[in-house]
């Protein structure tokens, strides 16, 4: 979801439907030029990372981490949420953990996230309000800290960070991650935030590889 989308840049407004297929031809040519075996190598995937990111078009996982197809398993939705009733997210997580055996699951948010900004407002947007409600819950939990930040942009940036932290925490609450830990599977959960303005990813340093920090009520024993 774009943050208060302004006029599209000249480059993106020139993208056409046919242009995408032309672009695909260029991609094939370029990939084979750099490695004639490029597509043969993708016959199986063995990514070490599951990325849970925002659907925002400006935050493409492979591009901003300088990785290739096959190296990151990706799930994206509005505002990089981990909702415990979301069968789509749970199915991706289960497959990543129990079939692909990823070593890292990374929740990546981004400053200026339209979903977070919308959730901070009192405006009704329609169906999506039910999704954004989960971000409002994050605000409620951290209201003391957030309300003390006078500057609107700084407060929004902090909510972006707290939303990443809470959703990384939500990952740890799932039976999928807890069972993996219980079975001795080596897997870590992380929280990152990306700056569209600079391209820089910041590690929020909430990495965890066990359920020690979980509130007792969430622990499966
Ligand atoms: Zn976003």
Write the SSE topology.
Elements: H1 10-13, H2 17-34, E1 49-54, H3 61-65, E2 72-77, H4 87-98, E3 104-110, H5 114-120, H6 129-141, H7 143-147, H8 152-173, H9 175-182, E4 188-194, E5 201-203
Parallel strand pairs: 1-2, 1-3, 3-4
Antiparallel strand pairs: 4-5
Helix pairs in contact: 5-6
The number of distinct β-strands equals 5
Order of helices and strands: HHEHEHEHHHHHEE
Principal-axes geometry comes out as: globular
Largest sheet: 5 strands, mixed
**Overall SS class:** alpha/beta
Neighbour order of strands in the largest sheet: 2-1-3-4-5
Low-confidence stretches: 1-5
Number of helices: 9
Task: Describe this structure in a few short sentences.
The protein has helices spanning 10-13, 17-34, 61-65, 87-98, 114-120, 129-141, 143-147, 152-173, 175-182, and strands at 49-54, 72-77, 104-110, 188-194, 201-203.
Report on this structure.
The protein is of the alpha/beta class. The protein is 43% helix and 13% strand. The protein has 9 helices and 5 strands, in the order ααβαβαβαααααββ. It has a 5-stranded mixed β-sheet. It is globular and about 55 Å long. It starts with 9 loop residues before the first helix and ends in an 18-residue tail after the last strand. Zinc ion binds at residues 1, 54, 56, 79, 110, 113-115.
């Amino acid at each position: 979801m774009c943050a208060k989308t302004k006029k599209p840049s000249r480059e993106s407004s020139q993208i056409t439907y046919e242009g995408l297929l032309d672009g695909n031809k260029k991609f094939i040519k370029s990939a084979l030029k750099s490695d004639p075996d490029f597509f043969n190598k993708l016959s199986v995937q063995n990514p070490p990372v599951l990325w849970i990111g925002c659907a925002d078009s400006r935050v493409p996982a492979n591009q901003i981490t300088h990785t290739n197809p096959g190296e990151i398993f990706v799930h994206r939705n509005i505002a990089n949420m981990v909702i415990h009733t979301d069968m789509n997210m749970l199915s991706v997580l289960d497959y990543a953990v129990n079939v692909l055996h990823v070593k890292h699951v990374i929740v990546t948010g981004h400053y200026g996230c339209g979903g977070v900004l919308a959730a901070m407002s009192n405006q009704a947007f329609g169906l999506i309000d039910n999704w954004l409600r989960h971000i409002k819950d994050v605000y409620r939990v951290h209201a003391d800290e957030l309300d003390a930040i006078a500057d609107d942009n700084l407060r929004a940036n902090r909510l972006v960070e707290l939303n990443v932290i809470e959703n990384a925490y939500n990952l740890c609450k799932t039976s999928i991650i807890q069972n993996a830990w219980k079975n001795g599977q080596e897997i870590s959960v992380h929280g990152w935030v990306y700056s569209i303005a600079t391209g820089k990813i910041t590690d929020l340093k909430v990495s965890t590889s066990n359920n020690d920090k979980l509130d007792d009520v969430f622990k499966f024993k």
